[in-house]
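mind reviewing these tokens:
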Amino acid sequence: MSGEGKVVCVTGASGFIASWLVKLLLDRRYTVKGTVRSLHDPKKTEHLLALDGAKERLKLFEANLIDEGSFDTAVQGCDCVFHTASPVLLSDVKDPNLELIDPAVKGTLNVLNSCSKVPSIKRVVITSSMASATFNGKPLNADVVVDETWFSDVAYCQKSKMWYMVSKTLAEEAAWKFGEENGMDLITIHPGLVIGPLLQPNLNVTSEAIPSLIKTGHDFFSDGRYRYVDVRDVAFAHIKAFEVSSAKGRYLMVGTVAYSSEVVKILRQLYPALNLTNTIREEDEKKPKPPLYNVSKEKAKSLGVNFLPLEVSVKDTIESLVEKKLLTF
């Protein structure tokens, strides 16, 4: 489908998922308005302005999640708004409200508020996360299939000090409430751990998972279970969530649930020079692991998403990190 003549906005346009979203939208001939925190930071703007079609059809705006009305100009005249901007911080959280919860919740409401003033906006697609679906204290066993009816439990997450999960769950709740009260057509996309090639020049939190495994041999997640998804699939799903008129509700985006040892196996085969035998700690490999569970792909597939194999995502992640000099071996 061609986006010719359609205008869309991507908030937090310089991020990992958002950069791919901007690229794919431009490839489909959409006119894109992207928001960044600072127009004077080349790390946030240069890779976007270098994309094919950017010269003709990309305009960048400055906007801040916690400044009310900050997104008014960017969303003006749009057909759809993709709200991807939200802080990602999985550890070392000192002030959960300041660092995560306020920017996630208030930011979402600020964007939706700006959208509610624009009659041309037909749909708003929000980047949520598996963080707002999986964490409710229910056991995740081999016979479990997590699907779109699952919601994380705020009290459970607070008690376990899972502040990122709290921020994403509260932001999603606030979005649905706002959508209902204002008759807004909303869709939420819930990616797992997003890997794949980077367009932006620096490492983001989820892209660190594989280099960190290579360098330290330690798991990124304490239980060693990962919900992998490729950034290109996630960006594509956002666009289809707007283009498929019958799309509605929440969409979980996980290509593979696997242990980190699965990635290590792929890396050993593809890159013997990494010398991973010494890197991955033997005690980590021998530790008893919790069972792998499943995440439903049915709804994602209804958007036309065919998940890329884990091998492809891992290979493309490494090639990209090497090319950007973020990994050497």
